Amino acid sequence: MPEIEVVAGAGDDSGESSSSPPTEVNLFGKYELGRLLGHGAFAKVYHARNVDTGQSVAIKAVSKQKVLKGGFTAHVKREISIMRRLRHPHIVKLYEVLATKTKIYFIMEFAKGGELFAKISKGRFSEDLSRRYFQQLISAVGYCHSRGVFHRDLKPENLLLDENWNLKVSDFGLSAVTEQVRPDGLLHTLCGTPAYVAPEVLAKKGYEGAKVDIWSCGIILFVLNSGYLPFNDQNLMVMYRKIYKGDFRFPRWTSPDLRRLISRLLDTNPETRITVDEILKDPWFGKGYEEIKFHFEDFELKDLRDGDNDTSLNAFDLISFSSGFDISGLFSKSEISDCGERFVSAETPETIIEKVEEIAKAENVAVMEKKSWGAKLAGENGNFVVMIGIYRLTEKLVVVELNLRQRESECSQRIWKDKLRPQLSCLIYRPEEDVAGN
């Protein structure tokens, strides 16, 4: 079993040889780059070591020139934004993003066990082992869907294994988010790998991201159990016809319960295809399954820092907050996102925290935790939680990030929309006011 991570969708970013690391062997004095792990259209992935901690990481070096030339700016920005919001034991973690004039570097969790594809290519798995990996996959996919993220390219090549042989979903380059859904409630971009793509994607009439991910999970489960693809043919159109018809056969060793589950996963009708909630209740799936639960109380102030006390912004934050690679997008009114809101302020962190405390007290919202760079507010018996993080942008400006977690209730929504949010608007920095004052 090769102890490397090969990230599908990454790619070559220069005229360098295929085995040599980039010229910045010591990246920002923080990471020592080692061997090449994989490459694709506009990036390369290297194994690296954190100089201070000795921790192994994977670094994806993306060529800015090739990204801009190929029109992939939105893809890179979306991948950063998506990976930034995902924290799950079975999803590859993005630690930070660094940048030079020519490259963007994704610093990611290193999956020592390599691709699941390499392991399954040596032979099919037992039913128990297939179940174990499928349970981990559904846990990660269900979490993504709950965060409004749809992977759209799930396949064994994008499923990595850590040193304990646990699953790690990777490569969110083709992922979509809820904001991309059109007025008809569907996604329309044709993407994915042919053998794993759902029939409704091929129909080009629009599709639901969650349902196509479930189809791909069905293909993966079939492959784990059988060692081969359910729909496969050298002629692409013949294979597509098989996918449309749901024309596949189970190997003789497949148990009745597993046959029933795979049949529901590979239901060609997306309306009747099994959902994540239904999968969790399936008797075959549920054997030995331990659900990973995420509660509001697990959302701690330290999550805004990931254990890093540095309150300045790096390229990770700049790219996430701005439009494309132009950081002028930072200097605008608050930007709505599914994780909350962000705005630039000219007030000091101390002043911002004082104002937050004042507003919270007036609205009967408790300040649960407070630091010089952030605060945690809670109300409605824990059903309403706001995390406020303050990040230094320049000597005079900071970015204030508000992460909101609330139950779907009129009361909690009213606290945010009608009370807290309007009162925080006085902290927003407006460049035009500086111009008028000069």
From TrEMBL:
Q: Does the keyword Metal-binding apply?
A: no
Protein keywords? ATP-binding, Kinase, Manganese, Nucleotide-binding, Serine/threonine-protein kinase, Transferase
Q: Which InterPro entries match?
A: Kinase-like_dom_sf, NAF/FISL_domain, NAF_dom, Prot_kinase_dom, Protein_kinase_ATP_BS, Ser/Thr_kinase_AS
- Which Enzyme Commission number(s) are listed? 2.7.11.1
UniProt binding sites for ATP: 60
**Gene Ontology MF terms in the entry:** ATP binding; protein serine/threonine kinase activity
Q: Domain NAF, which positions?
A: 308-332
Q: From its record, what is one biological process in GO terms?
A: signal transduction
Enumerate the catalysed reactions: L-threonyl-[protein] + ATP = O-phospho-L-threonyl-[protein] + ADP + H(+); L-seryl-[protein] + ATP = O-phospho-L-seryl-[protein] + ADP + H(+)
Cofactor(s) the protein needs: Mn(2+)
- Residues covered by the Protein kinase domain: 31-285
Family assignment from sequence similarity: Belongs to the protein kinase superfamily. CAMK Ser/Thr protein kinase family. SNF1 subfamily.
**What protein am I looking at?**
non-specific serine/threonine protein kinase
User: What organism is this sequence from?
Assistant: Prunus avium (Cherry)
